Amino acid sequence: MRILPVPCLSDNYAYLAAADGRREAIVIDPSEADPVVAALEREQLRLVAIINTHHHLDHVGGNEALRQRYGDLPVYAHASDVGRVPAQTERVEEGTPVEVAGLTFRPLHVPGHTMGAVSYCVEDAVFTGDTLFIGGCGRMFEGTPEVMHASLSKLGALPVHTRVFCGHEYTVNNLRFAETVEPENEAVRRKLAAARAARERGEPTVGSTIAEELATNPFLRCGEASVRARFPGPTLPDVFAAVRRAKDDYR
């Protein structure tokens, strides 16, 4: 499977995914149409479907323009997002695979950032939208700490080799915050240095792994003694909520 990150807006990523040896592509979270069209033409791919992780405009803003250009493409999003995702044609539910263009996407319902948020597992990758970032997680616009922590735990339980493709280029700032949570975590230092170097080269930082996130992402490490010492709480969701509040205030 080929995965091509497509930078959109100021810091978003859409993604093109294509099965090996095929020219048909699926776009995940097209914030806007023009960068996606340019990438399709550059790679000589044919768009056959749109998949959305959640309803926010910076993830669905290109849906209608892409359908106008390429025809009545199927648009997949969570069943609860009908009426909120532009041009949605298909209702996604966890447990029902999405099969398109030789790829099988396994939806995971991960409410918290929004209540209809979905991450999509395909082969050795997961597209996490704004639920799990590299080194961080999304804000809770519609969910509670309990709901969001459960969703992140679901993602953290994926096979450790799973590659993580998220919705924004927030990695350097996320890892700077992670360093304040665990100043002695050498894995965070190494990953932050690598992320800074990638950005200096003009390269994306996406394509982390679940193993790397379990070692460096404070929102997946709420059970670690080093995190709980700084953010004590009676339950893991309480610890998560405290870390999330600190990140909200971090500059």
Automatic annotation (TrEMBL):
Gene3D superfamilies: Ribonuclease Z/Hydroxyacylglutathione hydrolase-like. The keyword Zinc applies. It comes from the Bacteria. The keyword Amino-acid biosynthesis does not apply. Residues 11-168 form the Metallo-beta-lactamase domain. Zn(2+) 2 binds at residues 58-59, 130, 168. GO terms for molecular function: hydroxyacylglutathione hydrolase activity; metal ion binding. Its EC number is 3.1.2.6. It catalyses: an S-(2-hydroxyacyl)glutathione + H2O = a 2-hydroxy carboxylate + glutathione + H(+). It is an enzyme of class 3 (hydrolase). One of its GO terms (biological process) is methylglyoxal catabolic process to D-lactate via S-lactoyl-glutathione. Binds 2 Zn(2+) ions per subunit. Zn(2+) 1 binds at residues 54, 56, 113, 130. Its cofactor is Zn(2+). Pathway: Secondary metabolite metabolism; methylglyoxal degradation; (R)-lactate from methylglyoxal: step 2/2. Keywords: Hydrolase, Metal-binding, Zinc. Pfam families: HAGH_C, Lactamase_B. Belongs to the metallo-beta-lactamase superfamily. Glyoxalase II family. Thiolesterase that catalyzes the hydrolysis of S-D-lactoyl-glutathione to form glutathione and D-lactic acid. Monomer. This is Hydroxyacylglutathione hydrolase.
